Structure formats: C-alpha cells, structure tokens
Amino acid sequence: MKIEELILNDNYxxxxxxxxxxxxxxxxxxxxxxxxxxxxxxxxxxxxxxxxLDKSSKxxxxxxxxxxxxxxxxxxxxxxxxxxxxxxxxxxxGYNPWTII
Length: 101
Description:
Elements: H1 2-8, H2 14-19, H3 27-49, H4 55-68, H5 76-92
C-alpha cells in the first residue's frame, strides 16, 4: 500500500533535495517536514481503512486533514516538496491530489 510505504520512507533525505535542485533546508525544518508528513499519512491511513465512510465522507475528512497541515510554517520550496510527497498517498485513495492540496 502506497500510504504505508510513504510512512516508512525517508521522504526528505538529503539526496532528494539535491534531485529537486534545492539546497536542503536546516535539519530542524526537515525533521518537522518528516513529522508532519508521517502524522498526516497515519491519519490518512485511518480514513482510508474506515469502511463505515463512503467516498464523499472520506474526501471531506481528507480535505480537512490537508487544510490542517502547517503550510505557513514552510517556505515555498518546502511546501511544494510536502505536496509532492503526500500526493501519491492521496492518489492511491482514488482522488486527484491537485484538486485537494
């Protein structure tokens, strides 16, 4: 499952910053990005696995989760990196991430 895979990944490893053509953010920012991402993905997994929710209810909960992310704590490149990391998880649930993020 894509969500579980992303939870286990080192999503903000230094080579991934370089691959994006970016100078890595300071270590505390990277730690926060990883923490925010893992917490988001764990919550997303709970929503995805809740068989009592229909697709519309899952989408509502997903949108709230995305809106609650601390976007203002990150600069533009960090926000884009975060969005790119969580997008495949959202997509794996059958939603277009770019209409949600």
